[in-house]
Amino acid sequence: MKKSNLLRLTVISMIAVISITLTNCGARETRQPIDKLSDLGKNEVIVVGRIVVDPPFAPDEQSFSPKGLSDWYKDIITLGTYQKDPPAGKYDYDQFGADEGKDMFLVKLNKTFFLKGKNRSFYIVGGSVVMKYENRGNSVHITTRAYPARFKVNIRPNDKAVYIGTLIYKRNDFGDVKKVKFKNEYKKAKKEFRKKFGRSLKLRKSLLQPVK
């Protein structure tokens, strides 16, 4: 898999802060966290998995001004999604525009996530983490780091819950991604799933499939 995790600096006016935050390029947040089965719609599925940064971010590796923004950005990764075959050669979240059909969802790094969304297959096309957010009066400076990805999530029409696996970004001493690994933690995830939702739904294993 290609590496593409250079830091990016975006300077925007204060009036644009709300619109840019974590929905770059107009992408929609299509998969939301779910805590109870009563919130799951008829044609929706729960996607279960985990995104790991190894080693985890140091306490001072991300910075936010004002500090209250850490509630929004700390240890959060934005994952781009695509509903059809993504154009070849793109691994980076910021390489896709909303006009290309890109959407997104947010997850907490290093923790199992449970997200609900439409029960149809989709592609994960890269991740982005806010490393620095600085309010400078009439402008905001945002520095992000890209986490490349290019995988397909296979979902069947009758699925109500699928486990997609753990994606691990191994970093070097400079914080750059040196390797992307995958781990099957189905047993652990199934235990967490049952603790959260009970045993009424089957958690089908549908591991991430790399795509070119």
Give the overall silhouette: globular
Number of helices: 3
Q: What is the CA-based Rg, rounded?
A: 17 Å
- The amount of beta strand, in percent, is 35-45%
Record field, number of beta strands: 14
Q: Helical percent range? A: under 10%
Question: Spans of 5+ residues with little confidence (pLDDT < 50)?
Answer: 1-5, 10-25
The span between the termini is 9 Å
Q: Mean pLDDT, nearest integer?
A: 84
SSE class: mainly beta
How many domains? The number is 1
Order of helices and strands: EHEEEHEEEEEEEEHEE
Biggest sheet, in brief? 8 strands, mixed
Summarize this entry quickly.
With 212 residues, the chain is mainly beta.
Describe it for me?
- This protein has 212 residues and is mainly β.
- It has one domain.
- The chain has three helices and 14 strands.
- The strands form two sheets. Strands 1, 4, 5, 6, 8, 9, 10 and 14 form an eight-stranded mixed β-sheet that branches. Strands 2, 3, 7, 11, 12 and 13 form a six-stranded mixed β-sheet that branches.
- Strand 8 and strand 9 form a beta hairpin.
Q: What is the fold's blueprint, element by element?
A:
Blueprint: E1 7-13, H1 17-20, E2 32-33, E3 44-54, E4 63-65, H2 70-73, E5 76-82, E6 102-108, E7 112-118, E8 122-135, E9 139-147, E10 151-153, E11 161-171, E12 177-183, H3 186-197, E13 204-205, E14 209-210
